[in-house]
Amino acid sequence: MPSSGRSAAPDLRGNAAHPVFARLYAPVRRILDRAGFAARRQRLLAELGGVVVEVGAGDGGNFAHYRAAVTQVVAVEPEPRLRAAAGSAGSRAPVPVVVVAGVAEHLPIVDARADAVVFTLVLCSVNQLDRAVDEAFRVLRPGGRLVLAEHVRAPGRGWARVQDVLDATIWPRISGGCHLGRDPRAALVRGGFEIVSEEPYRLPRRASPVSFHVSLTARKP
Ligand SMILES: C[S@@+](CC[C@H](N)C(=O)[O-])C[C@H]1O[C@@H](n2cnc3c(N)ncnc32)[C@H](O)[C@@H]1O
């Protein structure tokens, strides 16, 4: 199913190898999942069916949560070590999973092929947020769903300022290019999506620059 979208060669500049981050990510993800994110994954993905494009799949932490209504997951992952881990997770998944190289800004998927697009903890790390949203829009069929669970910009000015300072200094360098102060909801609206539902929450509950999250479903009109 995956095939060339706008070009046969995905542009991996700036997103390919993050060897230190890739080594650390799986144990960090397991801690986050035990702290409550696994339940968020499950709730977000339970409603999906048909062809799902999962962008920035990491080590495949979502795969176990897809239900039988999903006929195919195309998991796009630029980082080689994480992509290999996702391949192993995909072979154990309850639904068919194919893992491919690529980036959110240039998905190797034909137009209107997907019934759903999934982002979990990815839009913080893409190089071009609006471009990633445009690509999700392109690969979705009309009426298709985009679901995301992301850490986001804090609602109050105090924490948002802390996030901006960290984003301008050390945070992206130690976290595989992640940014704390992004607002993916605004990007979806700019990109033409209709917001269907959204749930803000803190994980962990205690406020910190990384604790502000949202789970959201949007629809391509
Ligand atoms: C924090 S991890 C999240 C992984 C997974 N989605 C999860 O929920 O556990 C961020 C992932 O986004 C990937 N990533 C970074 N930049 C990307 C881009 N431009 N396009 C697609 N994936 C990207 C990273 O390689 C990494 O796998």
UniProtKB/TrEMBL annotation:
The keyword DNA repair does not apply. The keyword Secreted does not apply. GO terms for molecular function: S-adenosylmethionine-dependent methyltransferase activity. Residues 53-148 form the Methyltransferase type domain. InterPro entries: Methyltransf_11, SAM-dependent_MTases_sf, Thiol_S-MT. GO terms for biological process: methylation. This is Ubiquinone/menaquinone biosynthesis C-methylase UbiE. Keywords: Methyltransferase, Transferase, Ubiquinone. Pfam families: Methyltransf_11. Signal peptide: none annotated.
